Known about the structure:
Uracil-DNA Glycosylase, subunit E; 14% strand; six-stranded mixed sheet; 6 strands; globular; alpha/beta
Amino acid sequence: MPKTDLLRKLYARVCDDPFWKRPDMGAVFVPGLGSLEDQGLVLLGEAPGADEERVRQPFVGAAGRNLTQLLHEIGLTREDVYITNLVKFRPVNRRGANRSPRIGEQQHAVPFLMEELRILGPRLVVCLGLPASRAILGGSGVKMNEVNGKSFHRHHFLTMVTYHPSPLNTCNPARREALHSAFSRIRDFLER
Length: 192
């Protein structure tokens, strides 16, 4: 069965899952998007925000613009990679603003993510930020300053970890440099 059909079926199951039908989750499903090429590159974030919810695409806000720039610097475009999130609905706080997904939400999303990755068959999964990294690496003890730019074999996938390309991180000189360093490693890996 083609990847598009397998992803469509998986995404329908996520949409129908009653776990996500709660007042502290947005009602708009945001699927992954991009290249379905075998042995491709998958970029994994934590969850969509308000901008992503509006257009139903991952990484289209300020962090998305930073991600696009980082990809450009290593000779890639958004169309060359597959971009997705661990949680496919926007987590919201009481005021309706974005929040990070809670541990239980992350844990509930992991089996769906593992199926998504099996369908995609990536050569490399890049975890953008701590929640995505902890979900893949399996632990709350993961510290970004210790794992940024490093690769791991987890769940039958080669995984690299880096800071999230949020404006908060890209405005911090040390984290911005760490992001650029990690993306340089991604380029080096892909050129092998």
